Amino acid sequence: MELKYQGKTKDVYQLEDGPLLLKFKDDVTGENGVFDPGANTVGLTIDGAGRAGLSLTTFFYKKLNAIEVPTHFISSDIENATMTVKPATVFGKGLEVICRFRAVGSFLRRYGAYVEEGQKLESFVEVTIKDDDRLDPPISADALTELQILSLEEYETLKQRTVEISNFVKAELAKKGLELYDIKLEFGRDAETGEILLIDEISGGNMRAYKGSEYIEPLQLEKIMLSK
Amino acid sequence: MELKYQGKTKDVYQLEDGPLLLKFKDDVTGENGVFDPGANTVGLTIDGAGRAGLSLTTFFYKKLNAIEVPTHFISSDIENATMTVKPATVFGKGLEVICRFRAVGSFLRRYGAYVEEGQKLESFVEVTIKDDDRLDPPISADALTELQILSLEEYETLKQRTVEISNFVKAELAKKGLELYDIKLEFGRDAETGEILLIDEISGGNMRAYKGSEYIEPLQLEKIMLSK
Signal sequence span per UniProt (chains A, B) (predicted)? Predict the structure, then answer.
């Protein structure tokens, strides 16, 4: 099996018969030894972080596949921290699609003149481009089409899917007494059919969750969500 | 006459019978003694800069009013560097609407992974919020409506007007052998009727112009455009 790509938190292997194998690592993003899903650098290694992220990802993907949301998920092997997925090509060099239910993080940093910290937002969707050197800048629908990263029709699909998936995740968190503040998703085009698929992971590292006014760290979130 | 507001490059006075009087100052934005229209700080004072900016602004506003583009312009007094305008309220705390014909400046800094410097763009419109502390961040149509800064209908009007006005200015520059790379415009709502008006100035300080591969500084641009 051939190593195709080494990511910050996952390695990607090509399987012989078509699918890809994602190996979840114990490296997590953060700065100064603190796990920060919004950070661009790998800050520390936590034993079991890969398996925990994969467990929650598997939990959500199985539910999403069951309601027929198109995703790249085929199967997972928690013990070995691997997930088998359909190959997909990303938009441009990769986009992150964020859905916000409360104004925190980079949204608050940008628009603090117009919102209070934690103010409710209406399933607000925005896109950022994955570009560590340029600090993942936000990009408008018009700029995405102008730069031929995607078509306006594809943008509308991404936006609708993001609202749908994010509200699904929000409802799952609510069952455990948690509130989803924001979540970032990734999409790609199915390498065979061109269909738009949800890709990458859906774990604590992709979202900010609170219990009342208390921020729940990614590993804690995974523990709460997967407890019986 | 009452001083209402002191800006970086203009002071605003309330006239008794309704209109406002804008006094163009000789202070220009820039850093380290270099006139830079994109800068947020007043860097230097150039004798005659206020009158030069007003002259070019008057040139464009008279032409725009003649083709019935709604603007705040009533009249100007070049000698005293003042312009009389209809009062208008800005959107939120003020927006800048940028039309780009070539990828330079902050667009290139943000999206350099997808464009070459100077690459042609199709009358590309984007909006930034005026917020010196947050370095005038770009903002999407969705965020503008989410934050109730304007309605989606108003956004579409701004965008259409921006394309129309910017292409008009581009054509005027082309008559003098100059190429417009980008321009930033401001709009407001007519304080009486609510109609969307083009406001502020349209001078060298609002645009980037080139003659072949040579950048033309704002004061030089004003000289070229107003020469017979």
Answer: none
Q: CA B55, CA B93: separation in Å to the nearest integer?
A: 27
Q: Write the CB contacts of A182 (distance below 8 Å, at least 6 apart in sequence).
A: A98, A99, A100, A101, A102, A104, A105, A107, A207, A208
Please give the domain boundaries of chain B with CATH numbers for all domains: 2-88 (3.30.200.20), 89-216 (3.30.470.20)
Residue identified by tokens 């001078």 is B203
pLDDT exceeds 90 at position B114 = yes
Gap between the Cα atoms of A83 and A77, Å rounded: 6
Q: How many CB atoms lie within 10 A of CB A107?
A: 22
Whole-angstrom distance, CA of residue A60 vs CA of residue A203? 9
Residue of A99, A106, A111 to mutate, testing the B interface (most B Cβ within 10 Å of its Cβ): A111
Residue-wise pLDDT tens digits, B19-48: 999 999 998 887 777 777 767 777 788 899
Q: Give this prediction's pTM.
A: 0.93
Burial class (CB in 10 A: 0-12, 13-18, 19+), A218: buried
Interface list for chain A against chain B, based on CB atoms closer than 8 Å: 92-93, 109-115, 121-122, 124-126, 129, 131, 133-134, 137-143, 146-147, 149
Chain A CA closest to residue B91: A114
In our burial notation (b when 16+ CB lie closer than 10 A, e otherwise), range A176-191 reads eebbbbbbbbbbbbbe
